[in-house]
Amino acid sequence: MNNTQATTSGAGLRDVEKQAYREAFKLAWPTMPGVAAWGMVTGMAMVKSGMTIWQALGMTFTVFAGSAQLASIPLIAANVPIWVVFVTAMVVNLRFVIFSAALAPHFAHLPWYRRVWYGYFNADIMMGLFPRRFPASTIHQTEGKIGFFGGIGYSNWIAWQIGAVAGILLASQIPQSWGIGFAGTLALLGVMIPLIINSAALVGVVVASIVAIAAIGLPYRLGLLLAVILGMAAAMMVETAMEKKKDKT
Amino acid sequence: MNAVDTWITIGWLTVATFLTRSSFFLLGNAAKLPPRIQHALRYAPAAAMAAIVVPDLLMNGEVLDLTWANPKLLAAIGATVFFLTTRRLLETIVVGMALFTAIRLML
Question: Which value does ipTM take for this structure?
């Protein structure tokens, strides 16, 4: 795109970021209903577990982590020690550590407080969209990244919170049988399909799916993390095998 | 839990969010991963999404449900076909939810 043009003036740079922000927002907004639906399910789960409306609002605005919240809500209701809830949330969130390892090098030039700020918006949709626009090969270029990251991160946060607040307030009105959370799954499905860029990625997806199903009984949703790691490893093995084959011919 | 404990728990969960989401962001240049690992991370997002999406489609609790009576599976197949032909994400979510609801009500 227009990353090749050298923009040295402050005003020019700001324009690049603004443009990247708009580009990212356009990419992210079709996921917003799915993200909101997912937030809604989480909001409903909090209230239905016996949390007050204020506790649920406080939790959604700060914790901002669907699967970790869904995992910790029944633990809070069951009066489990606080450290157990904390460890559970850490483990459920471990995939974000992998995401941040992939995304953080793009922001290494920023001061630490801005890195922490952007890190907070690192999410599934972000990981689905950011590397498609800025692959690892662009790590040393800085233009457009803050704008692009913000365009996805802020709209994702807002969509999530709109859904969560609606879920908290409407908890008693919406029947479980409607399966609203399925919209979130569909949104992730639509973000995932374009990520299957080659046969190595396809193998990674198949292996991750099988491992996730086989390991569903593991505590702390460790199966999810195991699936990501083995899926990645499988994809790399296929890629290496393909390259070797190419070298021979 | 009493109210105070619940708020303390919410505080710790916020810490968990920052520690995981911001982990490598906070480390900055202090943690440079080897190129091979960085390369492998390209495949992480698709694998992570598959690990979230596929069990939701195929599992009913802890039991595998690969039958025609699984509305999520059928709706997801329809949504995938729709997405592959149109590449329109928002419409895919709408079509998938409509299929899911229709199949659920028919069964």
Answer: 0.92
pLDDT at A168: 95
Boundaries of domain holding B24: 1-32
Q: Are residues B59 and B102 in the same domain?
A: yes
**Which 8-state DSSP code applies to residue A134?**
S
Using DSSP bridges, classify how beta strands B59-60 and B63-64 pair: parallel, antiparallel or unpaired.
Answer: antiparallel
- The answer to whether B13 contacts A112, with C-beta atoms less than 8 Å apart, is no
C-alpha B95: how far from chain center: 19
Give one DSSP letter per residue of B5-72, joined into a string.
Answer: HHHHHHHHHHHHHHHHHTHHHHHGGG-PPPHHHHHHGGGHHHHHHHHHHHHHHHEETTEE--STT-HH
Chain A positions in Cβ-Cβ contact with residue B26 (cut-off 8 Å): 112, 115-116, 119
Per-residue pLDDT of A194-249, as tens digits, reads: 999 899 999 999 999 999 999 998 888 889 889 999 999 999 999 999 988 888 76
Q: Which of A185, A218, A224 to mutate to test the interface with B (most CBs of B within 10 A)?
A: A185
- Give chain B's domain count: 2
CB-based burial, A214-232: b 16+ in 10 Å, e otherwise = ebbeeebbebbbbbbbbbb
Regarding whether B51 and B5 lie in a shared domain, the answer is no
